[in-house]
Amino acid sequence: MSSAVLRRVVVHDRYQLELKLGYPLRKGQATRYRIDTYLFAPHSLGINPTSYPQSEFYRDIQHYVRMKTPSFTLAELLDSATSPLARSEALMRNRQDGLTPDVEESLRNSLRILRAVLKSAVQNHLTPLAIAPAPMTIETEEYFIDLVASAIESVDQIERRYRALYEQLIAANASPELLRAFRLTDESISILIEDLLLRVHQLAHAWLSPPLLVKWQMTLVARIRAEIDYRTAQGYPSVLRKATRENYMRRVSALKKFTSSVLWLSTNTRREGTTLEHILFAGVAGVSMVFATLVAFYAQAAYGEFTMPVFVALVVGYMFKDRIKETGKSLSSHLLNQRLYDYRTFIETQDGRRQLGYVREKVNYLPLSAVPEEVMAARKAGPHDDLSFAGIETTLLYAKSVILRKDAFDHMTRDGMEVTAINDIMRFDLRPFLRKMDEPYEQRLMLKGQQVRSVRCHRTYQLNLVSVFTGEDGAVTCERTLITLDREGIQRIEQFNAAGEPEPPHRPRLMLQAADFTEGE
């Protein structure tokens, strides 16, 4: 099993960057990772400790921690005894006497996991269609037809077997909660299949030539219509019409959250070192009080109890006491910041009974002289604007230390399926970086031949992310992400390795919405 941290940076929407980290679990061993992300921003954006303090950074990030979706192919979903579909069918065998609470809980989990696993399986099966062939040939047409036909056949079998469970649940006197979970998952699966087949319909023209294109688009339309008619017959409200667009989007989002929540993990975030901070501050207060008391005793012994010199000495002693206290607190905070992290997030099972590990995180600004050499080398490698890089960048360090307990692996299972990794998904809102930007477009004059023309130029800014991954063996890897922004948000991202060579783009996913990425992996 690979122990390397899996990293992917994608654009979540116009203003949010999504950084996904996958922490593989090692059976029988504690798992430790350290990820340092250095953000280099041009000074012109006005990002500094005063305008963008640590508290605002934490406000602009949002974390999701979940188990990695178990990986199955469409064939394995149908045939493997460990698939959530087969697991659900096995749980329903010989249940004429009813269902115990433990069996009902296992069924609820298996049914909901099926939707996430099915999405991943269908996407992986159809993902090659996202890249159009060049040129179109008889072989590529046959490839498209075989791929789509096998996907539809598998999906039909999966849906038929899944929906057959409903009558068995009724016969076994399943609780209303379990029947509701079945129907909500059923509705979500139907929407998922419809969305993916709609996407295939859009891509068909790049793979097929007439008359095959017309024939297969009609086949896809008929299959899509079957899903819509099924949801209508079942009374599901998630049928997209002109009058239901708003409710449809809200319904689809709620269904995704309901089915995927079975893989979510609970988190509990606390400030780190609060007890030690109180102890140090109390010690500093004690030292300052000792100083003020000694000054008072000395003045009274030297000048008497109620004299003007004693009064002055008490005032001066109090002044110095206050300054000693504040200076001590500042030094203590600086010492704690060097030794401790800002926050510690405990990762727990949903029921809160088992703690699986924790993530420590901190953020602070660094002078360029404090940036490690390997990070600067990765920052300088590859394309960059020499003028923007000429020592006029602000450097922000976001550090994470991940520790997963050695017995976490034993608890990371869902109804017979082994979960091999934890996904840590962070969304970073970049809108504070857009505040000081100029207008995105500006008219400039240029000479074209003998004519002077006015052309519109695009004004962009670049942020650089350099991520450093450190494993327990001390191996260090660097990756650089170049983010191009303008005042209207994120324009594009590019990724490079430590040598500055462009990394191959991630294979396109067969999806309708970028937000679906976080749920189906």
Describe this structure in words.
This protein has 521 residues and is α+β, with helices and mostly antiparallel strands. It has three domains: 233 residues, no CATH class; 180 residues, no CATH class; 67 residues. It is built from 13 helices and 16 strands. A hairpin with a 2-residue loop joins strand 12 and strand 13. Helix 5 runs antiparallel to helix 6 and helix 6 packs across helix 8.
Condensed summary:
The chain has 13 helices and 16 strands.
Q: Secondary structure elements and their pairing?
A:
Elements: E1 6-11, E2 16-24, E3 31-42, H1 54-59, E4 61-67, H2 74-79, H3 84-92, H4 101-126, H5 138-171, H6 176-203, H7 212-234, H8 245-260, E5 266-271, H9 274-303, H10 308-339, E6 343-348, E7 355-366, H11 373-380, E8 393-404, H12 408-411, E9 413-414, E10 417-418, E11 421-429, E12 441-448, E13 451-458, E14 461-470, E15 476-486, E16 489-497, H13 517-520
Antiparallel strand pairs: 1-2, 2-11, 3-8, 3-14, 4-11, 5-6, 6-7, 7-8, 9-10, 12-13, 14-15, 15-16
Helix pairs in contact: 3-4, 3-5, 4-6, 5-6, 6-7, 6-8, 9-10
Pick out its properties.
single chain, 521 residues, alpha+beta, 3 domains, 8-stranded antiparallel beta sheet, 4-stranded antiparallel beta sheet, 13 helices, disordered C terminus
